[in-house]
Each structure stands twice: as structure tokens, then as C-alpha cells.
Write a structure and sequence with these properties.
About 50% of the residues lie in helices and about 15% in strands. It is an alpha/beta fold. It has one domain: Aldolase class I (TIM Barrel), CATH 3.20.20.70. A 7-stranded parallel beta sheet has the order 3-2-1-9-8-7-6. The protein has a two-stranded parallel ribbon with strand order 4-5.
Amino acid sequence: MRIETPALVIYLMADHDTVELAEAAVRGGATAIEIGIPFSDPLADGPTVQRAGQRALRNGMTATRALELIGKLRRRIAVPLIPMTYAGPVMAYGEERFCADLAAAGADGMIVPDVPHDEAGDLLEACRRNGLDMVPLLAPTSTDERIELACRGAGGFVYLVSVAGITGSRQRLSDRVGPLVGRVRPHTELPLLVGFGIASGGIAREVMDTGADGVVIGSKAIEVSEAEGAEGLERFVAEVGTAITK
């Protein structure tokens, strides 16, 4: 997949209102959409994303329905679509079948945070066979060895986690982001995008000042959507977009 930079990736949970929200985010300037496929035990998700996932599950969302939703999104928006889920749903569905059906639906890649790249052999190969990029996550605690390994198998972009912890809006950028960008940059030519805790245009601008290529915003995007609907999300994305292109 080709990630336009400066990148502004908006995370949305797969649910009944996702198409409307994704279209609003793209109108606001989102350069890619990350689609959460809900799972009952989401290890990396903070309270906001967990709440959205539980709501989606109560509304009847399944892996199969999420794939149908991705197909509908692909017919409506042109930016890259990157599903994010966990190993459990992928294994239950079947790795090869899951990747094949994702590709058929129009997805460009996938993120599976609880499958580290040194254990992702079969899934990584299934992605490659079906033309999907597998996006790795790296954190400030990642060793140089893990950084090199993850970058070697990465596709699309490298997702840099701003903190060692779960997702969620935060008031300031960790001072560990700049050093992490500096450590990862020599290992890949792919864009480096920073997520977890990006809650405002100001924080997003700070991310860009570290030398990163863009941001991923999830919890704050969900919070804005819950409070202000699609129009509010479009305004928020436009504000962040302005901040990162200054």
C-alpha cells in the first residue's frame, strides 16, 4: 500500500455507523482508515476503544460482517484501508482464508498487535500471498534486534507506539518518541507513523517535529464521534490535518 505523507490515519471500530464516519474522516483529510475488528479480549486497547468494541459486539459485529463492511467502505472511499484485529479472530477464521477474504474485500494491509514479527511467519506469508502489507508495531521498549526484524518484514508503514501501554488520549507527547523515531529510521524507508495518545492537533504537530511521517489517531477520534457525530469528526480531522502540514 502507498501511504501518503504527512499521514493522518484515523482508527474507527467496525460498527453500524463506520461507513458514515469513515467518509467524514476522509472529507476532513484522513489519508488512510484503520478499521478495528472487535475482539472480546483486546490486549492493546484502552477504555475508549474497548467500549467501542464491546458496543460493536453487542450490535452483532463479527469477523465476517467486518469483512463485508470493509468491502462496502472500499466502494465508497479510495484511501488505504487497514484492518486491525487480534490473533484469536484470525486463527478462528483461518489465516489463509482471512487474508484472502480481506484482500477480496479491498483491504490494503493488516495490523495484529499480539502477533510479534518474530512469531508471524505463517501469517506474514499468507499476507504476502494475498497482496496485503503486514504493519508491525514498535514501542520505546523494543530492542534494536526486534526493530531490525520487524522492519525487515514490514509493509505499508511502521507503527510506532508512543508509550509502553494501552491506547488512550493523553495530554502530552512522551519524550521517548523522538529517540524511537531516530532508532527505527535507519532500518527502513517506509513511513514511520506514531500512535497511542495523539489527542489534538498540537500533539500531532509535536510528533511531526520528531521527524516522524504522520500520526494514527484512535481513542480521540472515537470520543469525538461519540460526542459530536460525523460532522464533529470531520472538523477534528481537518484541524489535525492543518496542524501536521504547517
